[in-house]
Design brief:
alpha+beta, 2,3-Dihydroxybiphenyl 1,2-Dioxygenase, domain 1
Length: 155
């Protein structure tokens, strides 16, 4: 009887170990966000905007061909700015990058100093829009018309 219980216990532990391995492997295989790319008409103008107005840090890019600038947008996430677009195309505000700042009003002052137009979702006022959860938001466009949301979400 003792031998049978040990055998069952061993089998049970083997099954649990296999299930834990499968669960861990499945989590390890789930994708995580790495980067997004924008295609721009003027690389220097776009890079200046993201580095100087939004104050995103430039990071090394592997191409070294003068057609790419990469900036860090989160701890393990990047924005790849790539030159080569032939013309500005209209962009819908529903498709936007979103960044959080500690103080939307203070950030708005920096936009004013840089002469960057911004406003609420409808574009009717420069005053921040307040979501139902209390988060303040403003929207602006980069030099190629890509929409950007700036909010004070504390997540």
């Amino acid at each position: 009887m003792q031998k049978l219980n040990l055998s069952r216990a061993f089998t049970f532990m083997t099954i649990l170990t296999a299930m834990a391995f499968i669960a861990a492997t499945a989590r390890a295989q789930a994708p995580h966000f790495n980067h997004t790319t924008i295609f721009v008409t003027d690389l220097k103008r776009a890079a200046d905007f993201y580095q100087n107005v939004l104050q995103l840090k430039a990071i090394p890019e592997p191409f070294h061909d003068g057609k790419h600038v990469w900036v860090q947008i989160a701890e393990h996430s990047e924005l790849h700015i790539v030159s080569g677009a032939k013309e500005d195309i209209p962009h819908d505000i529903n498709i936007h990058l979103a960044f959080s700042v500690p103080d939307v009003e203070a950030f708005s002052k920096r936009l004013d100093e840089a002469h960057v137009k911004y406003g609420n979702w409808a574009g009717t006022t420069k005053a921040p829009q307040v979501r139902p959860d209390g988060v303040k938001q403003i929207y602006l466009q980069d030099p190629d018309g890509y929409w950007i949301e700036i909010d004070d979400d504390k997540f």
